[in-house]
Structure to design on (311 residues):
C-alpha cells in the first residue's frame, strides 16, 4: 500500500555487502583485482582482434563487441562497489542512480541480443561454410551489431521509465551495492504491481526470444555436425561452439535466476550473490573462456608478444 504524506527521495544511500567492517578491506582488494583483470582482459581482446588480420572475421568482430560490453558492464558497477566498500555506505543522487540503472540495463540487454547473434553466426559458418563470407559480409555484421544496440537501448528506456516512475519515500536506504531492480522495487512506497508485470513480461520476452534463437541455431548446428562422416571433424567443429555455449550458460543462467524466478522466499543477500556473478565474475571470465582454448587468439597473442620483444 502506498504511504501517505511522503517526501520524495532526492538521493539514495547504498549499503555495503556486510555489516562487519573487518571484511571491507579484503573485499575491496578482491573486487579491485577483479576489475583490473577484467579491463585488461577485455580491452586486450579488443586490441588483439583489431591489430591481427587473422582475427578479422565475423566471429571475432562480434567477440570484440562482447568484450566492449563486458568492459562497460563492469565499469558501470564495480567502481560503485569499491566506493561502497571504502566508505561502508555511499550517497548517490536520484538522477545518478537512474543513470546507473539505465547504462547497466543497456549493457545487459545488448549482451543478451549479441549472444543470440553470435549463435546465428556459428550456425551460418557450420551449415554453409562456402557461403559464410558472403552471407556474413561487413554490412550484415554491422547491421546485426547495431540491431543489438538498438534493442538494448530501447529495452533499457522501458525498464528505466517503469522503475523510476515509482514513488520513493522517506526510506532511501538501498540494501545493495548498486541501483538494481529488486532492491528498488522493495524500496518503492507506491503500488509496484503494474511496473512489475511490465518488467517481468518484458524480461521474459527478451530472454525467451533470444534463448529460442540460440536453441534453433544449435539444433541446426547439431544436425549439420551429425551429417559429417569424420568423428574427428565433428569434435573439431563442435569445439568452435564450446566457448559460446559456456558464455551463454553463465549469462542466461544468472539472469534467469535473478529476473524470472518468483519473488517469494527470496532475500536480498541471495540477490547480492547472483548480482556479483553477472556484473563482476562473468565479464572477468568471458575473455578467458574465449582465449584459453582458442588457437587463433593464442597465436595472435604470441605474434603481438614477439613484436613487442623485438621493438
Amino acid at each position: 500500500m502506498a504511504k501517505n504524506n511522503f517526501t520524495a527521495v532526492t538521493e539514495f544511500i547504498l549499503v555495503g555487502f556486510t555489516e562487519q567492517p573487518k571484511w571491507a578491506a579484503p573485499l575491496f582488494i578482491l573486487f579491485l583485482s577483479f576489475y583490473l583483470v577484467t579491463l585488461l582482459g577485455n580491452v586486450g581482446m579488443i586490441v588483439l582482434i583489431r591489430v591481427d588480420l587473422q582475427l578479422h572475421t565475423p566471429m571475432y568482430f562480434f567477440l570484440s563487441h562482447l568484450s566492449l560490453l563486458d568492459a562497460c558492464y563492469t565499469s558501470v558497477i564495480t567502481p560503485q562497489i569499491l566506493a561502497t566498500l571504502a566508505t561502508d555506505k555511499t550517497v548517490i543522487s536520484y538522477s545518478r542512480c537512474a543513470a546507473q540503472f539505465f547504462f547497466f540495463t543497456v549493457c545487459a540487454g545488448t549482451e543478451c541480443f549479441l549472444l543470440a547473434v553470435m549463435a546465428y553466426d556459428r550456425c551460418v559458418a557450420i551449415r554453409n561454410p562456402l557461403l559464410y563470407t558472403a552471407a556474413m559480409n561487413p554490412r550484415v555484421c554491422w547491421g546485426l551489431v547495431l540491431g543489438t544496440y538498438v534493442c538494448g537501448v530501447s529495452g533499457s528506456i522501458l525498464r528505466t521509465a517503469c522503475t523510476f516512475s515509482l514513488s520513493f519515500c522517506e526510506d532511501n536506504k538501498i540494501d545493495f551495492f548498486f541501483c538494481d531492480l529488486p532492491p528498488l522495487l522493495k524500496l518503492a512506497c507506491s503500488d509496484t504491481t503494474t511496473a512489475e508485470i511490465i518488467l517481468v513480461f518484458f524480461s521474459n520476452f527478451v530472454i525467451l526470444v533470444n534463448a529460442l534463437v540460440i536453441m534453433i541455431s544449435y539444433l541446426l548446428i547439431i544436425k549439420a555436425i551429425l551429417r559429417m562422416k569424420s568423428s574427428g571433424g565433428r569434435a573439431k567443429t563442435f569445439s568452435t561452439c564450446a566457448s559460446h555455449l559456456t558464455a551463454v550458460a553463465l549469462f542466461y543462467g544468472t539472469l534467469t535466476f535473478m529476473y524470472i524466478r518468483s519473488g517469494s522466499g527470496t532475500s536480498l543477500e541471495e540477490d547480492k550473490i547472483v548480482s556479483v556473478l553477472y556484473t563482476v565474475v562473468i565479464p572477468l571470465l568471458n575473455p578467458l573462456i574465449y582465449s584459453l582454448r582458442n588457437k587463433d587468439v593464442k597465436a595472435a597473442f604470441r605474434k603481438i608478444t614477439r613484436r613487442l620483444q623485438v621493438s
Remarks:
- The CA atoms of residues 106 and 154 lie 8 Å apart.
- The chain has a mean pLDDT of 85.
- The chain has ten helices and three strands.
- The longest helix spans residues 94-127.
